[in-house]
Amino acid sequence: MAPSATSPPAAAPAKKSLTIPVPLPSRALKPLISSSSTKAQTSQAILTAFREAGFLYLQNLPIAPSTLSNVFSQSQRFFERPQSQKDSLAWTTPSSNRGYVAHGREKTSQSLSRDDVMKERSNPDLKESFEIGREGVEGHPNQWPDKIDTEGREFKTTMMDFHNQCKEVHCLVMSAIAMGMGLDEHFFDSFTKDGDNNLRLLHYPPVKKEVFERNKGQVRAGAHTDYGSITLLFQDMRGGLQVQTLDGEWLDVTPIEGTVVVNAGDLLARWSNDLIRSTKHRVVEPPIREGNLDEYPARYSVVYFCNPDSDKLIEALPGTWEKEGKKYKAINSGEYLVQRLSATY
């Protein structure tokens, strides 16, 4: 079944919908087999969401629910490993961006300067992660736990397969964006051929309620925009993700079973000459689990950061700059991503 764009669920009276002012209709995204009229409608709906909100939900993905369940299960078991095993697979450099990232190692931030990010570390992110890049890149091996045990070998197989499946979704969404912008649906194919994307497994451990009460500025992941073209976020049902509206209000991104949250990143905004929005978001404390009023529960998410291939030059797309000019100089995709990662680690 092909992916579909869908509206968020009805919000409680005190909340606003994620996609305000973009209530997306439910439509099928069939880039290869649907009629051209259906493709045009779907593509325009997706582009409208990216222009006005920067976020949307997709459903009916070409990823089996059992696959996603297995990915989450293996992610949880990985983070349950002894700290010494996880540390042996440690993240090393921004240019590689692969391996285990311990609590406090990364501070997600909107700041571009490492010095500015250091000032924000008084409120460290309450998370740990495992980063997986494209397999087989010379000089940048993934830090697989396959050398530790049989479960580690199974983990590697599962995550490599999931990385490839997410790349397919990435290409489908980029095709829709191209059509929505009046470009050929295969316009971005040459930019996504290699799949220089990053799969991130995230674990937000349980946190005592008093941690947030003592420090009103404490969050699980700081406010930031994503760096690449688009991001696919698979979240559990705990909640905690929020996005910021143009007037500065923070809105909950309510988990919807069977969907992926998709948002535009900074490179896509830059690529589109700011036609598309890269929206600031953060992770805060989720609702308290019933029967445990003193502790916020653990949260797990799986994030697939989609980027143009690292050797590609990114400059304003045709049709976005001819009237008002180009807002940004051309930039190399890989160099830009390393620059942003260097500030946060």
Task: Please summarize the sheet with the most strands.
Answer: 9 strands, antiparallel
Low-confidence stretches: 7-34, 117-121
Number of strands: 17
Question: How far apart are the termini?
Answer: 39 Å
Please work out how many helical segments DSSP would assign.
Answer: 8
Helix content: 25-40%
* Radius of gyration computed on alpha carbons: 20 Å
Order of helices and strands: EEHEHHEHEHEEHEEEEEHEEEEEH
Structural description of this entry:
It is a single chain. The protein has 345 residues and is α+β, with helices and mostly antiparallel strands. It contains eight helices and 17 strands. β10 and β11 form a beta hairpin. α1 (36-52) crosses α5 (150-180) and α2 (65-79) packs across α5 (150-180). It is globular, with a radius of gyration of 20 Å. It starts with a strand and ends with a helix. The relative contact order is 0.17.
Topology:
Layout lengths: L3 E3 L20 E2 L7 H17 L2 E5 L5 H15 L3 H5 L11 E3 L12 H7 L7 E5 L17 H31 L17 E7 L2 E2 H6 L6 E4 L5 E6 L5 E4 L5 E3 L6 E6 L1 H6 L9 E3 L11 E2 L2 E8 L6 E2 L16 E2 H12 L1
Antiparallel strand pairs: 1-2, 1-3, 3-12, 4-5, 5-6, 6-15, 7-14, 8-13, 9-12, 9-15, 10-11, 10-13, 16-17
